[in-house]
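User: quick one, sequence for these tokens?
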């Protein structure tokens, strides 16, 4: 499954998300662990990882967790809700942070999850909750 998730990570996201350099580290059913490099283009003028990069990383981490919940199969989906609490700044010299995204409950149309972002020393830096909606497959004609 991890190879399939890495394929999704290399092909599915928008160029902005690809520019974050997210790496899939591990995966189990409904859970994925990624790393996010803390590099100059994601650090703001105060010398910490910017919230916009954190939100984009959380959003895509959850996409992969949803796929991991379905044995690595990607289904088109859209973000309905993504909320984050920023608990501590991540200094520019941190190297990388870890994101753990978990699918908590999946229905036929909606899936709920959470994402934890931790610093290299294991401290929680941000916590996110999400709701995603599966999007109907547009490649098949709708019945009339």
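Assistant:
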């Amino acid at each position: 499954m991890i190879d399939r998730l890495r394929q999704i990570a290399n092909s599915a996201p928008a160029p902005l998300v690809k520019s974050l350099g997210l790496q899939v580290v591990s995966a189990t059913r409904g859970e994925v662990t990624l790393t996010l490099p803390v590099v100059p283009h994601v650090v703001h003028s105060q010398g910490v990882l910017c919230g916009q990069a954190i939100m984009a990383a959380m959003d895509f981490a959850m996409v992969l967790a949803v796929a991991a919940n379905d044995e690595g199969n990607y289904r088109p989906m859209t973000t309905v809700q993504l909320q984050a609490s920023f608990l501590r700044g991540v200094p520019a010299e941190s190297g990388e942070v870890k994101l753990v995204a978990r699918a908590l409950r999946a229905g036929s149309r909606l899936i709920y999850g959470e994402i934890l972002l931790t610093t290299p020393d294991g401290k929680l830096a941000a916590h996110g909750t999400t709701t995603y909606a599966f999007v109907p497959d547009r490649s098949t004609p709708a019945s009339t």
